[in-house]
Design a protein that fits this description.
Elements (H helix, E strand, L loop, with lengths): L16 H11 L23 H11 L4 E2 L2 H6 L6 H8 L9 E3 L4 H14 L1 E6 L18 E6 L6 E5 L4 E4 L5 H9 L3 E2 L12 H7 L6 H4 L2 H4 E8 L2 E5 L12 H4 L8 E8 L1 E2 L3 E9 L2 H14 L5 E5 L1 H8 L2 H8 L4 E9 L3 H14 L3 E4 L1 H8 L4 H11 L1 E11 L3 H16 L3 E6 L6 E11 L4 H18 L15 H23 L19
Parallel strand pairs: 2-4, 3-4
Antiparallel strand pairs: 1-2, 5-6, 6-10, 7-11, 8-9, 8-10, 12-14, 12-15, 13-14, 13-17, 16-18, 17-18
Bound molecules: flavin-adenine dinucleotide.
Length: about 525
């Protein structure tokens, strides 16, 4: 993973000249004032951990698995939001952990937590490092140091219960590794977020991720039937039946807890047979409203393809279509929907049902071209973000969800807020996760960088968070809370809700060492 950007450095590319020109003409984008820092120029704080603590950690996981070289520290600094990348490009490594610790078992995680609690060292559980909400930055105040607890060595497919269609897998497995291991059994999880190439199973559970095929396979939290969690107070082993009336479901307390309550060391996950057939195709609707109505009908009639997404007018023109298709689509100012089917003999009948609903609501069938084009480029947008940042554009995404009846209001509120704080940015939106009762809205914003691009985005983000909550949406449908959504989340769940979360944290993590500052603010500054 590129330390200051996304993915395989070999795939990094400069923006072509004509696109730069277009960005300049449309948005006033100019090359950034300062060049991006080289690896050796990033300013890292001195390692704060004492030799005593480093020795204690080595005693637990072995000397090879405690690293405090610059390379390891830098690669575990923050996540991959646009402000994270901008800070790295500016040479700011101030949030680097003091050390990276790689445990090899559940018991080692427990022992690391005990050691860190004894020495008041903050612990940041680290999966793929793709958080976009500030979920990997711990508050240092009151702690003797910070370690990143990298779960990469917990990377086994432990067992497959074919009869129950449940696989036990370790949290450090990256999604492609997990899919490869399951493919050996003819199975799949069906979880394909845009961060698929790098994110891990533990991160998906801890941040309540949702993948591009959620209409068919469900969200990641739907897939978790059981889990083992290491906390500073001991082990939690949750989930022993497909459903249960034995009190509140404690799995739901850990799902979405973003490393603040415990470290997930094992997951029991519902799996599906790997599909024999994959078909992706496109539909055009006259407007976002008309397309939304069709998606709603499909969700409410239970005729859902595996992938279902709808771009608004702007995203249709700019984002999804191939350059050769932009003219054709924009001439008619429509909205592109992609329907993807992954399955077996049921696929033809489902396609017919979807076609009947879509065409009955004004959809025009575009054939497989746009669907295949989407499937081909489904993981490429983050690479483009790096090229845009280098060219002087700020590009960031944000998401929310709401009930169908409130979706138009939410859509407008977000757009208005972004326009109010960023001048005339390019704002694109799509729906990519649908339910009978509502849907998510996923926005991409492109604007010209100012000389302080981090400050520019932070101001916009504060106001758009407020707009989302005021308009009745949730602050996150699938990115999580982290630090960036913490205040808005507190408004969303109210004082009592925050008190409950704090109470759970205090009970599981009395020293407050787990990801301090993420999910819930400390009640009072730690002294
Ligand atoms: C380009 C890009 C595209 C993305 N697309 C999507 C998308 O389509 N859908 C989506 O849902 N998200 C998406 N994300 C967000 C991100 O990939 C998800 O939040 C993902 O779940 C994070 O997984 P990770 O392994 O990288 O976790 P990390 O980023 O390493 O950690 C995320 C949070 O979980 C905690 N954590 C990690 N592992 C554990 C564990 N084992 N136990 C306890 N806590 C743990 C961390 O402390 C942190 O707070 C995207 C991000 C990027 C950068």
């Amino acid at each position: 993973m590129l330390w200051s950007g996304w993915g395989d450095p070999a795939k990094a590319a400069d923006l072509p000249g004509p696109i730069r020109k277009l960005l300049h003409e449309m948005l006033g984008v100019r090359p950034p004032r300062d060049r991006a820092a080289d690896f050796g120029e990033v300013r890292l704080p001195a390692v704060a951990l004492s030799p005593l603590v480093l020795t204690a950690l080595r005693d637990v996981v072995g000397a090879d698995h405690v690293r405090f070289d610059d390379d390891a520290r830098l690669r575990h600094t923050r996540g991959k939001s646009t402000p994270d990348l901008l800070r790295m490009r500016a040479g700011d490594g101030s949030d680097a952990p003091d050390a990276v610790v790689l445990p090899g078992s559940h018991d080692e995680v427990l022992a690391v937590l005990a050691t860190c609690a004894a020495h008041r060292v903050a612990v940041v559980p680290f999966g793929g490092g793709t958080s976009v909400v500030g979920g990997l930055v711990a508050t240092r105040q009151g702690f003797a140091g910070v370690v990143a607890l990298d779960l990469a060595r917990l990377n086994r497919l432990v067992a497959v219960d074919r009869e129950s269609m449940v696989a036990e897998m370790e949290p450090g497995l990256r999604a492609p590794q997990a899919e490869q291991l399951l493919a050996g059994h003819g199975l799949t999880l069906g979880h394909f977020p845009q961060s698929f190439e790098y994110a891990t199973l533990g991160g998906f559970a801890a941040a309540r991720s949702s993948g591009q095929a959620s209409a068919g396979y469900g969200r990641f939290d739907d897939m978790v039937v059981g889990m083992t969690v290491a906390t500073p107070r001991g082990t939690l082993d949750l989930g022993r039946a497909p459903a249960s009336a034995a009190g509140p479901d404690l799995r739901q307390v850990i799902l979405g807890s973003e490393g603040a309550f415990g470290v997930i060391t094992s997951l029991r996950l519902r799996v599906r047979p790997a599909p024999a057939e994959r078909v992706y195709e496109g539909w055009r609707f006259e407007s976002f409203a008309a397309g939304s109505a069709a998606l709603r009908r499909l969700a409410q009639e239970g005729a859902l393809p595996t992938v279902l997404r709808l771009s608004d007018e702007t995203e249709t023109m700019i984002g999804l279509a191939r350059p050769s298709e932009i003219g054709a689509l924009s001439a008619d100012a429509g909205c592109l929907a992609v329907a993807g089917y992954e399955g077996f003999s049921e696929v033809p009948a489902l396609r017919e049902r979807v076609a009947a609903v879509a065409s009955g609501l004004g959809g025009v069938y575009l054939g497989p071209g746009p669907g295949e084009s989407w499937a081909y480029g489904r993981y490429s947008a983050p690479y483009l973000r790096d090229s845009l940042l280098a060219a002087g554009a700020t590009v960031e995404t944000l998401e929310t969800a709401g009930f169908w009846s409130n979706l138009p209001r939410l859509y407008e509120a977000v757009r208005l807020s972004l326009h109010a704080s960023l001048g005339s940015p390019l704002v694109m939106c799509h729906i990519s996760h649908v339910y009978g009762t509502g849907a998510s809205l996923y926005f991409t914003v492109v604007t010209a960088q100012t000389d302080d691009p981090v400050g520019q985005w932070e101001t916009a983000k504060r106001s758009v968070n407020e707009a989302i909550v005021t308009a009745g949406g949730t602050i996150s449908h699938h990115h999580g809370v982290g630090r960036d959504h913490r205040e808005a989340h507190a408004v969303e769940i109210g004082d009592l809700g925050v008190e409950i979360l704090r109470g759970i944290k205090d009970r599981l993590d009395p020293e407050g060492i787990l990801n301090p500052g993420v999910l819930v603010a400390p009640e009072k500054p730690v002294s």
